[in-house]
Amino acid sequence: MASYPLTVFFDGACPICDREIALMRRLDRRGRLKFSDFSRPDFAPTSINISPAELGRIIHARWGDGTVITGVDVFRAMWEAVGLGFLARLSRLSLVEPLVVKAYAWFARNRLRLTGRPTACAGDTCSSAPPGRHIL
Predict the structure, then answer these.
(1) What is the mean pLDDT of each run of 10 residues along the chain (136 residues)?
(2) pTM for the whole structure
């Protein structure tokens, strides 16, 4: 059984990521999701003890009991939380799951380039970030 809330760590400086989170916020009528934008200058990495660079490499979320999940499992958990469990179930079908996992892995590797942000982070430091933003 899921231990809500589910806190999703996301890159608000990524236009695609930001749109996805905006949709999840609108659909979260039961208040099961919380969101933490790790691109904000006031983000505290100690809140999850994972570097911003690692958070930017692959999506992370933390259940209310402290359990951390990553990658496609985060999207499945968000879909379940907002009433789109059929998407989570569909993504687990034996013919679909490998495609979903590969598609997300490709996006995660290429999202900076796809969103016109070629700079990445190393450790806890981001370079070439616009004022007030971190690029991850």
Answers:
(1) 91 90 97 95 88 91 96 98 97 97 93 73 43 36
(2) 0.83
